[in-house]
Amino acid sequence: MVSLFDQGAFAPCPAPFNLAAHVLRQAPNLPDKPALEVIGAKGAQIWTFAQLEAAVRGTGTGLLQAGLKPGQILLMRLGNTVDFPIAYLGAIAAGLIPVPTSSQLTEGETAKMIADLDAAAIFRDPTVACAAHPMQIELPALQAMRALPPCDYAMGPADRMAYAVYTSGTSGMARAVAHAHRAIWARQMMVQGWYDLKPDDRLLHAGAFNWTFTLGTGLMDPWTIGATALIPEPGTDPMHLPALLRDHKASLFAAAPGVYRKILKSNAPLDLPDLRHGLCAGEKLSEHLHQAWRHATSTDLFEAYGMSECSTFISSSPAHPARGQALGQPQPGRRVAILGPDGPVPYGEAGTIAIAASDPGLMLGYLNAPEETAARMQGEWFLTGDQGTMAPDGQISYLGRDDDMMNAGGFRVSPIEVETQLQAHPDITQVGVASVEVKTDSHIIVAFYTGPTPLDPAELHRFAAAHLARYKQPRAYVHLDALPSGANGKLLRRALPAYFKG
């Protein structure tokens, strides 16, 4: 028997279709129910489903009145506020193509994106760094659009492009991953396959509005079934999250593993009477962290595995808990395999985790990078680049990357991208970057470099901050006489962590 798990065909996406219309489909039935509560120490800012839909569709009208045309691409440079999801869905409602990005990006990084996308306009919070563009729609103008009459939803083929997100490409250049409107339809496979999400749930997501993990899991998925999304106000200390979970009666909690780790630092029992379970993604959940959370809260954590190209498609859930160190199993409707050079490998044998190229949640491709898109395809399969094994019951264990990609707080980061920027420093001769485990379950990005003399770490931090988003910046620098290399002179990145002394 080979490592191929087929959960059966998922219902095809209806047509005509619009992602935003699907997300807000419950608004006519639940006009006065809270769709979103932005919560903090002083209470909550509440948006009902009717208010949310009116703001989204009014924004769509305003964008069209501004002269934008369906099919044009818009780069989003907004901060961690409710303006982000409203502008995002407003663009999609009107048939435009938003590209959400991290507010941590530098001006230079956004300049490359604007050129790559041929962006028609920029959604701009003046406090967020962005390169120049002739059409910038600033935050006050976006907010004023919400009061306009509602736009019609731009209905059309489910396979047309709806949005794009950036991910670190294997070439070291950030790539725009194009997704179709059908991507939201495919996310229904997570409802039972991971979340166990119900219409009466109150899901608190610890991430920022402008993180794609928050957009999907924290906002759009609850709204699609009529549940309430809870988002902490900007700047909330993770140590205050237990009180918010308790006071606002959250039944589900979603966060990256690092957030759970920070909450548990107090070692105090957590009284969360309404919480059914927690959800985590972005990096591998360790058994140590899982057990510590279970001991403190008497609730479980359920992990999901995915990527920018296909969101999550392997997960544990209350109906199918992970066994031991396994990630979980393919969600209902998914077709997943562990591939070797000749196709699916036998059960228990290591190979590349792959998902069917026909999966409705899979990307349309990398924009302006057909060769890189083709390189990830192998016949009927999309190759994730991650290694794993599969048991006969479909449980999949993660074995790591088959390349040098790093994980920084839930963001995939290419070492090549970081190295390229640091190499421009006039006193660095050669540089290599790697993720280093500094203590159990805690990793940082470290830069190892050669040059005439060791450099001031503070100066290197300033240089990196001018050229890289914060999550891409090394947290430590190590000067070496020479970087480890193979017989052909190629840098051995995987040998670098051994040179870090802490």
Strand tally is 28
Give the CATH class of the domain at 406-499.
Alpha Beta
Structural class: alpha/beta
Indicate the CATH topology of the domain at 406-499. GMP Synthetase, Chain A, domain 3
Number of helices: 14
From the alpha carbons, calculate the radius of gyration and give it in angstroms.
22 Å
State the strand order across the main sheet: 3-2-11-10-12-13-14-15-16
Map the helices and strands:
Elements: E1 4-6, H1 19-23, E2 34-40, E3 43-48, H2 49-65, E4 73-77, H3 83-93, E5 97-100, H4 107-117, E6 121-124, E7 136-138, H5 139-145, E8 161-168, E9 174-180, H6 182-186, H7 189-195, E10 202-205, H8 212-225, E11 228-232, H9 241-247, E12 252-255, H10 257-263, E13 277-280, H11 287-297, E14 300-307, E15 311-315, E16 329-330, E17 335-340, E18 343-344, E19 351-356, E20 365-366, H12 370-375, E21 377-378, E22 381-390, E23 396-401, E24 406-408, E25 411-413, H13 415-422, E26 430-439, E27 442-450, H14 457-467, E28 476-479
Parallel strand pairs: 2-11, 4-5, 4-6, 6-7, 10-11, 10-12, 12-13, 13-14, 27-28
Antiparallel strand pairs: 1-17, 2-3, 8-9, 9-20, 14-15, 15-16, 17-18, 17-19, 19-22, 21-22, 22-23, 24-25, 26-27
Helix pairs in contact: 2-3, 2-5
What does the model show?
With 502 residues, this protein is α/β, with parallel strands linked by helices. The chain has a domain at 406-499: GMP Synthetase, Chain A, domain 3 (2-Layer Sandwich). Helices cover 25% and strands 28% of the residues. It contains 14 helices and 28 strands. Strands 3-2-11-10-12-13-14-15-16 form a 9-stranded mixed β-sheet, sandwiched between helices. Strands 1, 17, 18, 19, 21, 22 and 23 form a 7-stranded antiparallel β-sheet that branches. A 4-stranded parallel β-sheet has the order 5-4-6-7, with helices on both faces. Helix 2 (49-65) packs across helix 3 (83-93) and helix 2 (49-65) packs across helix 5. The longest helix is centred in the N-terminal third of the chain and has 17 residues, at 49-65. The chain is globular, with a radius of gyration of 22 Å. The chain starts with a strand and ends in a 23-residue tail after the last strand. The model has no long low-confidence stretch (mean pLDDT 93).
